[in-house]
Amino acid sequence: LGRVRTDSRFSGLGFGNPSETMRTMFWIYWAVIVTGLVVYAIVGVTVA
Amino acid sequence: VRRVLFENSLSLLFLLLFVGSVVGQSFAGQHAYNAEQVDHGSDPLSWRDYVFSTDFGGAVLENWQSEFLQFSLFILATIFLVQRGSNESKRLEDAGLESKEQQKIGSAASAGSPQWARFDDWRTRIYENSLLIPMTVIFFACWAVQSLNNWRTFNEELQAHHEATISWGSYLVNPDFWERTLENWQSEFLAVGTLAVFTIYLRQRGSPESKPVGAPHDETASSG
Question: What is the pLDDT of residues B65-93, one digit of tens each?
């Protein structure tokens, strides 16, 4: 998703810098969707 | 930390609302499901078992698919179709894919442009559709998973009534599947259409979903 500028003021706070958090939000949303899809695909295929 | 929270406050709010709602749905759904189980003389399900049931899976996914359909269609339709005066539409003269200059592709890319926007080859063709493609794939995936879960639930009910179960293929043309699908679609389409039309005449100060309060009614695409 392009190059990410880092901002040292926000490093080392445990939250990463704003750009890293932006990327984290992107992947959290992906993770929620993929997890839901995989879990209920398994439920839909396997539950008797 | 405060700055990081502020800069991501929109996505954080909706993530929290999502988690709260889906947890609430699981408890409410479990109670409703168990009330029916008791009525039919069957054993109630624990919360954990209900969360991993096809009843809950179908209910969650049928709403997911309709949301992703809504946004996929909206992203696609707003490329080519316009609504004069609406903030949700682009300017009438911009209808279509727009020029490379407008889209900052290839030599028109700026310093901060994503790398795949600069190449102007197959990579750019992928990247220039990288919002619509996953949204559409997620829609079809959610719809397929919904159908599997709804199908299992439907067969459980048939079995409970000592009737013959049906195949997944038969379920896809069953009115039960289409009722669950269309009841979700209709609400999304109405809401999107309403937003597109309401933003012609109505305003919300400070919201990018609205035109500026003082914008003329026939001004199109002027996010506030």
Answer: 999 999 999 999 999 999 999 999 999 99
Contacts of B7 (CB under 8 A, 6+ apart): A18, A21, A22
B148 to chain A, minimum CA–CA distance in Å? 5
Asked if B192 reaches chain A (Cβ–Cβ under 8 Å), the answer is: no
Q: ipTM above 0.85? A: yes
Long-range pairs for B130-133: beta carbons < 8 A, 24 or more residues apart: B131/B75, B132/B72, B132/B75, B132/B76
Q: How far does A22 lie from chain B, in Å, by closest CA?
A: 7
Average pLDDT over residues B183-190: 98
* Inter-chain CB pairs, A–B, below 8 Å: 74
Residue B15 sits at the chain A interface (C-beta within 8 Å): yes
